[in-house]
Every structure is written in structure tokens, then in C-alpha cells.
Queue: 3 jobs
Job 1
Amino acid sequence: MAAVREAASEIVGRPVTWDGLAQVKGDAREISPLADALTGIGCLLLTVAFLGIWVYGLVSLFD
């Protein structure tokens, strides 16, 4: 584990410890409002498709 810590320290450019959470500064990707909207629309469409297939199967079962 010491070798992994040393390699990570060299890559990051600062000492790496396993005692706490990593602090991300400047490397985090900003998500645009368009990406948020598309994600929500995609989840909604998947939910509607899943429920539609489920209802179709239920109706077919009793038909």
C-alpha cells in the first residue's frame, strides 16, 4: 500500500493520505442546465416505457 500511496502522490503532485476524503479543486466538471433537463427527460421516458410494457403485459395476461 505504501507504493500505491507514493505513486498517487507523484501523480497528484502533493502528499496523499488515506485518513480523509479527497478534496477536488478545479477538476470537477460543471453540469449544464441542458444536461440536467435531458437527464430528467430520459428518466421520465424510461419510466413511461417501463410502465407501458408492464401494463401491456398485465392486460395480455388477463386477455
Note: The longest helix spans residues 33-62.
Job 2
Amino acid sequence: MRKWSQPTQRNRNAYPDTLAKALDADDWSGRPAHAGAKLQPCAVAYLDGGLWLHHVNDVDQEQPVLTLIAPCTCGDGYIDTVLDGERDLLQVLTELRATGGRFPHSGDGDCGSQHRLRAWGEARP
């Protein structure tokens, strides 16, 4: 497993009071691209409580995308949410605190295919 330092520097800039203080380059593991599955190279970092961070450079938007992945309250899968900066991260973590670090299960679908919605009902980017 390859260590990846790129997310560390970007997260220090975008998340100076949270991730920059909690994660360093050794906490990130790089994953190679998979052309057949159309997956780009990425990096992941495990957080306590079963939460994960996923970092990828979005070539369409020409910017990095940081996603928080957390277990679902049903216990059968994970739900992801794209983070839009440090304030968004703090808001999501505050919401997760009330449910023991798990996203509330919604709908009848597979948790692995669910994406969290914003409070106003639009899918998070």
C-alpha cells in the first residue's frame, strides 16, 4: 500500500483547524487507478469509530474532492457525503455525534449506494 502525501497538504490549507491537526501523510494510503472500472487514483484515511475520508482529484472540476464515509445506523452499509470545506465538516461531525458516528438510514435501498442530502433536499455535490 502506497502512502500519499498530496491530500495532507491540500487538507492543511482547506481544513486548518481540523484535519490539518488530526492527520499527517502517514495516515493516508494511496490507491491506484482502475481504468476498467473508470476509477481515478485516490487516497483514503481511516478515522476512529468506523469513519473514513476519501480524497480524489476530480478531473472534470479540476479540484480535489474530499468525501466523509460513515456507517449507517442500520449496520448494513456505509453512506458518503462530499465535504464542502471545514465548516461543512464540523456540521456533519456535529450531526454524527447525535447518532454515535453513524448516518441515519433513509429509504429502502442499499446503504452503499446512498448519498446524503442537504437539509433543503438537494443532493450534496
Note: DSSP finds three helices and six strands in the chain.
Job 3
Amino acid sequence: MPSEAIGRIQWGGLLMGPGTPYGIEAVLGLDDLPDVRSDDTNRPSQHGEYSGPDYTTARTIQIGLVLRADDPAALRDLKLALRRATQPAATPAPLQFLDWDILAYGKVRKRSIPYDAHYLWRTGEAALELYCPDPRLYSLTEHTDSTTAYSPSAGRTYPMAYPRAYGAAGASGRLTITNAGDSEAYPVLRIDGPVAQPVVELVGSEADDSDDPGASATLSLTGTLQPGEYLTVDTRTRAVLLMGTSPRRDWVRAGSEWPVLSPGDNEIAYRGAALPGAPGQTSLLTVTWRDTSL
């Protein structure tokens, strides 16, 4: 059964929580909704406003700690280790709530390790504040599923003769992806060749409607992948990279939409043209995602 106790928290090489000398006294901002950035405008010459879509700002997570040591020297060592682990950084890093299956990406923006002579010199307090520019909360587990491109069956060979010969079975080229979170998830797509003009289509989702970010979407690409080549597509950053490094954003056909996974089940279809002289369709689509919430 899930527990309300926060459990263990991992920040880099620093482990906090039960079984460690860093007891967790408080956590703020994890279950809270970040501030909302609205797109509302006044109705001219009327009462009220026109309300646009709401988006959240960055998330701020605060962690209160109690430090427990056997003697003053050990307490000082704990403070120094905490100081080393919470230095300013150029990019966000993983903040893992191990027993709640939550992953956030943040940077330490504030650190407080006060000295209080009224305490016994075996205990102390500390407070951390982490700024998370991406306010989403992800599952610790990264999910992956894959399918070959759609390929119709070859059917029977005519004129018929005995023994009768039947072509190979076709491939459906479809996946059902489950986002077990409460908010839309942005998958990373990997397309392995050989294939020409691949298409990834989000056929629908449990929450499918015209205003839903996970509604039907088709991503069409104009390029060709030879055997051994692959393309990665990050639907959140919209980076399109050949062999994981070379930009191919110009391969995205005009009018394409980026597939986003709504909470619940999402059906994805993959198809593409076989290369000349290539028997069958062996191209592979791999979808990687994390359950996502706000």
C-alpha cells in the first residue's frame, strides 16, 4: 500500500531519509500545483475576460532536514558533505523520491545550514530549495515499446498450384501506449531504417477530443533511412537528430503535428515506404516515455 511517509530522497550521490543521518522534516512544493501562467484578456466594453489556456510556471521544491551525528566532529562532516552536494549547477539534475516513484529535474537555488549553540552538538538543521524549470513530475521508470512499420500480407500466389504458397503475414504497425500519470507525456521516438518517408500517427487516446493536447496527431517525415541508420525525435524539445547527433528538423513535413500522450491509453500507428529492392518492411519504431503528472 502507498505510504504518506515521504521515504528516501536521492540528490546526486546524497541519500536523505530513513536509514541516513539526514532526516527529512518537511517537503514543500511537491504535491502543490505550481503558479499558473494564464492567457486571459479583458473583454472590451464588457464585463469579464476572455479566458485562454492555463500553463504552469516553474516548480519550487523545499526540503527541511534534521542532521544527526554521534559527536560534534561527525556533525561537522555531515554539514560539509551536504554543502558539497548542493553546489550551483549549469543544468537541472535528477531529484528522485525513491519511495514515491517521482522524478523531478531541478537546481539548488538556496541552502541554509544554521549554527545554533543551544542545540546539543550532535544534531543540526538544514533547508534546501530547488528550482525546477520543468514543473512536471515523472515516474522513475522509463517505459519503452516498439513495433515494425505497417506491412500488408503478401497473400496467395497465382496461378494456384499444389502445394499452395502463401505470402508472409503482415505487420500491424500499431502500439498501445499507457501513460499512467495525470498529465500529458512527451515521448521520444526512435526510427530505425531501412525506410523512406516514415509517418508516426497518434490515432487517438482515452481523453481524445478537439481541445485535448493528446488528440489525434500525425508526424510525417520526408527523409530516407538506410539500413543501420536511425532517427531520434524528441516531441518535447522538437529536436530531430540523425544518428542521435545530426539535426534533421527540415525533414518534418509542413502541417505535421507532434504526438503527445494523454493520461490513459494512447494508440500509435507507424508506417513508411520500403526502399527499392528491400524485401518486406523491417523498419522499427521505438517509443520511450515516462508517466507524467503536474
Note: The first helix runs from residue 72 to 85.
